[in-house]
Amino acid sequence: MRTAICLLLILGIAVVSAIFLLPRPLSPAIPVPTVVHSQGPTVERLERLSHLATTRVYVVDVLVGQGEGCRGAWLIKGDALVGVNLSQARIVEMTETTKQATILLPPPEVLQPRVDHERTKTWEVRRMVWLPWNADADRLRDEVMRQAQQLVAHAAGSDENLQQAKLSAATIVTAFYEEVGWQVQVGWKDTSTAGK
Questions:
Q1: Calpha distance 77→151 (Å, rounded)
Q2: CA-based, 20 to 30 A from 72: which of 31, 111, 165, 195?
Q3: How far is C-alpha 153 from the chain's CA centre?
Q4: How many Å separate Cα 150 from the centre of its chain?
Q5: Computed from CA positions of residues 4, 8, 14, 18, in that sequence, does the dihedral angle turn out positive or negative?
Q6: Into how many domains does the chain fold?
């Protein structure tokens, strides 16, 4: 008798467990469509990108320096990035019904100009004075390298490079918003009137 009660008890536990643990077939439900609305373009995602480097410019030039009792020539090689500071982007127009907007960006600027010291070569350094203690080739080289850094920055900031950076930035920002269904036109802030 005890065995029969134990078997019934085990069988009852198994049935109750099967009812609660086995997946039940779902009743057919009417599908409810998911509705998603765009809040329009925001500059938050752009601002998080900070600077958008769109162009890398490579510079090669020969610098000749004279001073500190020496004269020398160096083959300078360097590069710089040209990009746009997206933290200053502003939405100036936005139409929800047509999903069109205009974003104003600051003009491109030169970022991180550098002289590549591994590829820069000393062509020649000669003393120009008779007394050895009146010549300092190291100080001349240091000054030439400072000038080389400015040369790279100036060359990278040419109108052609800045226009290329504008074109690239506008293309990237436009594609960025096309992904969420918006047509965006990119405008540029005028810095010539800034401060007036």
A1: 10
A2: 111
A3: 19
A4: 23
A5: positive
A6: 1
Give CA 60 to chain center in angstroms. 25
Nearest to 54 by CA among 92, 81, 23: 81
pLDDT, position 33: 76
Q: Supply the range of the domain harboring residue 50.
A: 41-188
Length of the chain: 196
Mean pLDDT of the residues in the chain: 82
Other Cβ atoms less than 10 A from the Cβ of 10: the count is 10
Bridge partners, residue 184, by sequence: 101
**Among all chains, which residue has been given the structure tokens 């004269």?**
71
What is the distance between the terminal CA atoms of the chain, rounded to a whole angstrom?
A: 104
What predicted TM-score, i.e. pTM, was given to this entire model? Answer: 0.65
- 194 has pLDDT over 50: no
Residue 84 phi, psi (nearest 5): -120, 135
C-alpha distances out from residue 164 to 55, 112, 139, Å: 7, 17, 37
Contact 82, 158 (CB under 8 A): no
- Does some domain include residue 27? no
- Strands 100-105, 183-188: pairing kind: parallel
